[in-house]
Design a protein that fits this description.
The protein is of the alpha/beta class. It is about 35% helix and about 20% strand. The strands form three sheets. The protein has a seven-stranded parallel beta sheet with strand order 8-9-7-6-12-13-14, with helices on both faces. It has a five-stranded parallel beta sheet with strand order 2-1-3-4-5, with helices on both faces. The longest helix is centred in the first third of the chain and has 12 residues. It catalyses: L-glutaminyl-[protein] + H2O = L-glutamyl-[protein] + NH4(+); [protein]-L-glutamate 5-O-methyl ester + H2O = L-glutamyl-[protein] + methanol + H(+).
């Protein structure tokens, strides 16, 4: 298998060296060059085109987001943003995702080298995932991930006595790589009277609040970051906070969310599998679910459980996904019989309601 060729762009020599050591430690990855700024990166790219670029945001001569725009407009290459989260940086990073960044790794302002070394698996997974992103075509997949915990570690499976009848509907959505824009497309189709919506988008801690705030300004419905105990209300979407699991619960005929700590499930926190299992358990046939673009298989098993509980399910089709991983796994495992283009999903969710 050919190695994934990586270009590191960061103005810190310390970070460049640390990232190089971390990425080079993976036998499937190869650092072909490092650059201190975008202008130097362009020269390196003329010599050898990378499969993936890791890119800082705050750099001299040209900031990373501007450079990202130029890359995507001229010669698209999968980009992983690797930058510190400070001040208004969260909003900047959201803009980077909108511009086409495949993933984001948040590095601290202090202790960066130690953080990068301790985050080796996360970084290498992000780079290999980016190499598979559908910009022009998918590259070869990386190694099979290490053994993962499933939703049993956070919530027990549904039992026959879990459900009490109710007519209240709820929509649940799971997404990862490419999901920020896919979720926007779906939510902008939702009218004020739509059922309550709960969403898990794989995002680092600190990003989800800005993501929800941005969507709230773009959509007719209210969008907010979920807090423990929030009611699931009509005309509102709750975004699971980064680094916390979000579960759907019921009190009488009304739904609410539980936001809690817990181990990584399917290598993620928040996990789509956790949300979907809790939805199967507490909403059953009153649930409407979709799984959107994303790397890996988080949510696939949970969608199978929802379908078995009588929920209506669908997944985003390969043609419109940035990465056709999570929807593919859900479809192949029998979690849904329906693959839909992104632009059709919102309307079909409402028809299912």
């Amino acid at each position: 298998m050919n190695k994934v060729k990586v270009l590191i762009v960061d103005d810190s020599a310390l970070v460049r060296q640390a990232l190089k050591e971390v990425i080079s430690s993976d036998p499937q990855l190869e650092v072909i060059a490092t650059a201190a700024d975008p202008f130097s990166a362009v020269e390196k790219m003329k010599q050898q085109k990378p499969d993936v670029i890791t890119l800082d945001v705050e750099m001299p001569r040209m900031d990373g987001v501007t450079f990202l725009h130029k890359i995507m407009e001229q010669h698209p290459v999968p980009v992983v943003i690797c930058s510190s989260l400070v001040g208004e940086g969260t909003q900047t990073h959201i803009k980077a995702l909108e511009a086409g960044a495949v993933d984001i790794i948040v590095k601290p302002t202090l202790g960066t080298r130690k953080f990068l070394e301790e985050s080796k698996v996360r970084i290498c997974d992000a780079v290999k995932g980016a190499a598979r992103a559908r910009l022009k075509k998918l590259t070869k997949q990386g190694a099979v991930p290490a053994k993962k915990l499933n939703a049993d570690s956070v919530i027990a499976p549904k039992s026959s006595s879990s459900m009490v009848e109710t007519t209240e509907k709820v929509i649940v959505i799971g997404a990862s790589t490419g999901g920020t824009e896919a979720i926007r497309v779906v939510l902008q189709t939702m009218p004020l009277g739509c059922p309550g919506i709960v969403i898990v988008q794989h995002m680092p801690e600190g990003f989800t609040r800005s993501f929800a705030k941005r969507l709230n300004g773009l959509c007719s419905i209210e969008v907010k970051e979920a807090q423990n105990g929030d009611a699931v209300l009509r005309g509102q979407a709750l975004i699971a906070p980064g680094n916390k699991h979000t579960l759907l619960k019921r009190s009488g005929a009304r739904y609410y969310v539980e936001v809690k700590d817990g181990p990584l499930v399917s290598r993620h926190r928040p996990s789509v599998d956790v949300l979907f299992r809790s939805t199967a358990k507490y909403a059953g046939r009153n649930a409407i679910a979709t799984i959107l673009t994303g790397m890996g298989d988080d949510g696939a098993n949970g969608m199978v459980e929802m379908k078995e509980a009588g929920a209506w399910t669908c997944a985003q089709d390969e043609e419109t996904c940035v990465v056709y991983g999570m929807p593919k796994e859900a479809y192949e495992r029998g979690g849904t019989d329906l693959l839909l283009p992104l632009n059709n999903i919102g309307a079909r969710l409402l028809r299912a309601v």
